[in-house]
Amino acid sequence: MSRLHDISQPLRADMPVWPGDTPFAHEPTWVLDGQCPVNVSRLTLSTHTGTHADAPSHYAADGQAIDEVELTPYLGPCVVLDMRHAGPRVEPEHLLPVLPSHVERVLLRTWGHFPHERWRSDFTTIAPESIDLLAERGARLIGVDTPSLDPEVDSRLLAHHRVRHHGMAILEGLVLDAVSPGHYELVALPLKLAGADASPVRALLRELDG
After folding, report:
1. b/e string for 53-78 if b means 16 or more Cβ within 10 A?
2. CA geometry: angle at 16 spanning 11 and 21, to 5°?
3. Which residues sit in the known binding site for substrate?
């Protein structure tokens, strides 16, 4: 049986979120006891909580909402690349030595250890030119273990806009600590949230036979 890797963040009350965004909360509304036969809970969260898929409408006024995007980029063969050495930004010269000649989905590991316990503003970002390179090699999706492709304080969102230019999809907030570089099958479908700018996902990698 093929081995599965769960590369999703656990959603919990004390998890760090983007500064100013909605904290995650999970609270019971019905409690299973002598008077009630079921447990039911209420969730409060941002569309960008934890491991999530950005919709084009997140950063473009005329972009598609998450329920309108094509789903095939989120399901299929992918390659995981180790970019822990890249520094503040992943440039094409970091990718070229390890990037296959043809790719469909690319996941980039940049953290030595994913910062589950606190917010980190010094996360590695992706150069727009690197997005162009991935698109030239056939990429339909880029995934990162950081909260954004672009810097926290840069409102231009240059990498995001290059992604949209090439018709690619985005996954952010992956947890790749326990995954070796190599080829896998990705499963990370967004929820069908009507009109939403993003969606949390349960992201999995399946090891390929052979």
Report:
1. bbbbbbbeeebebbeebeeebbeeeb
2. 95
3. 18
Is 105 in contact with 135 (CB distance < 8 Å)? no
Residues recognised as catalytic: 58
CA nearest neighbour of 163 among 188, 196, 126: 126
CA 124/CA 86 separation, integer angstroms: 8
Provide the whole-model pTM.
0.97
Q: How many CA atoms lie within 13 A of 22 on its CB side?
A: 11
Q: Structural domains in the chain?
A: 4-9+47-207 (3.50.30.50)
Question: In 3-state terms, what secondary structure has residue 94?
Answer: helix
Can you tell me the mean pLDDT for 144-154?
97
Integer Cα distance of 43 and 62 in angstroms: 29
For the stretch 38-82, pLDDT in tens is 999 999 999 999 999 999 999 999 999 999 999 999 999 999 999
Please give the annotated binding residues for Zn(2+), written as ranges: 48, 52, 54, 160, 172
Q: Are 21 and 48 in contact (CB under 8 A)?
A: yes
β 198-200/40-44 pair status: unpaired
